[in-house]
Amino acid sequence: MKTKTFLTGIKATGMPHLGNYVGAIRPAIQLAQENPESLCIYFIADYHALTSIRNPIQYREYVYEVAATWLACGLDPKRVVFYKQSDVPQIFELTWILACHTPKGDLNRAHAYKAAIQKNEEYNKKDLEHGINAGLYNYPVLMAADILLFDTSFVPVGKDQIQHVEMARSMAQRINQTYKECLVEPQEHIGKTPLISGLDGRKMSKSYENHIPLFCPEKRLKKLINKVKTDSSDPGEPKDTSDSIIYEIFQCFANPEEVKDLEKSYQEGISWGEAKALLFEKVNRELSPFREKYDYYMNHQDEMDQILENGSIRAKEIADKVLARVRESIIGF
Ligand code: TRP
After folding, report:
1. Three-state SS for 301?
2. Would the pLDDT of 1 be above 70?
3. Which atom of ligand 1 lies at the shortest distance from residue 157's CA?
4. Using CB atoms within 10 A as the burial measure, which of 5, 222, 242, 262 is most buried?
5. 9: Cβ below 6 Å to ligand 1?
6. Can you give the pTM of this predicted structure?
7. DSSP per-residue string spanning 154-203
């Protein structure tokens, strides 16, 4: 019997970026390596992407991009239960059960929904619900089902996902208080690495279009790093580390000694061009072996199909057990 279960997912809306890697993928893989006694469940949240994607070819491509990313970055499918959400229909049954126990007002307060409403306000839309589908509205319920269906104790996520885990926990608590206890109440597991900034200094995000795709070709990686915003200090002028995106990202890829060296170079007035070249070197050092594996998997999608299918079999075994317990407790069958 494994002691704790860690579960996390990545939404399939395109190739993950550097921020996803540093904030979610790398720590999750380390967690699996450092906690051999625990059960790790990492999945591709593909149906979550259906709130916005409207093209099956693109949908598939995004799923494979996320799958190849996990595998390239070192996820061991023998060690980790690895699957895509749409292969585990039990999740959607639990989604309905949870929805029937969730006050609608709680969903009104979810960040993503509120942000969509706010956007409509900014664009002076008459109908504030314009363009918001019920899937987006129910996103937190589906995510809670992802988590609760596997008796998850800890959910490794970035800070932006804390509200979702809190909502999952309160759904579990409400059900446990109303019926015979049947759900594990999960907690967020926040890594040490902060969310990193994108090219323009805002949080790196695909929706801001300020992101660096994790496995873009080397040349493009170099180009994008050259676009990172800096202040206007000239070569020779000392530079401030506390206000430097280059320094911030560098820290995530370099060892402490290399970081010290860069600090010294900043004091000595390294040019931004040189600093960017150093950053490229460190990022590329870590990513280039993964890039090769990524390309391999993208060219062998049948291998990924097999891996995901094997994972979904294990996932469904767990899901069936938990769902049976939940159904027994709530509907009596
Ligand atoms: N909402 C998460 C994101 O946007 C993805 C996700 C879906 C998830 N279900 C999850 C994360 C369950 C952790 C646990 O990235």
Report:
1. helix
2. no
3. 13
4. 262
5. yes
6. 0.94
7. EEEE-GGGHHHHHHHHHHHHHHHHHSS------EEEE-SSPPPB-TTSSB
Q: What is the pLDDT of residue 144?
A: 98
Both tokens of residue 25?
């993928």
pLDDT in tens, 170-227: 999 999 999 999 999 999 999 877 789 999 999 998 889 999 999 999 999 999 999 9
Q: Is the CB of 155 under 6 A from ligand 1?
A: yes
Cα 16 to middle of ligand 1, angstroms? 13
CA of 142 to the centre of ligand 1 (A): 9
Pocket test for ligand 1, best of 84, 94, 146, 153 (most atoms within 8 A of CB): 146
**Which of 48, 113, 166 maximizes ligand 1 atoms within 8 Å of its Cβ, making it the mutation to test the pocket?**
48
Our answer on whether the CB atom of 10 is closer than 6 Å to any ligand 1 atom is yes
Percent of the chain with pLDDT over 70: 99
What are the Cα distances from residue 67, in Å, to 23, 109, 317?
Answer: 17, 31, 21
Query: What digits encode the pLDDT tens for the residues 146-167?
Result: 999 999 999 999 888 999 999 9
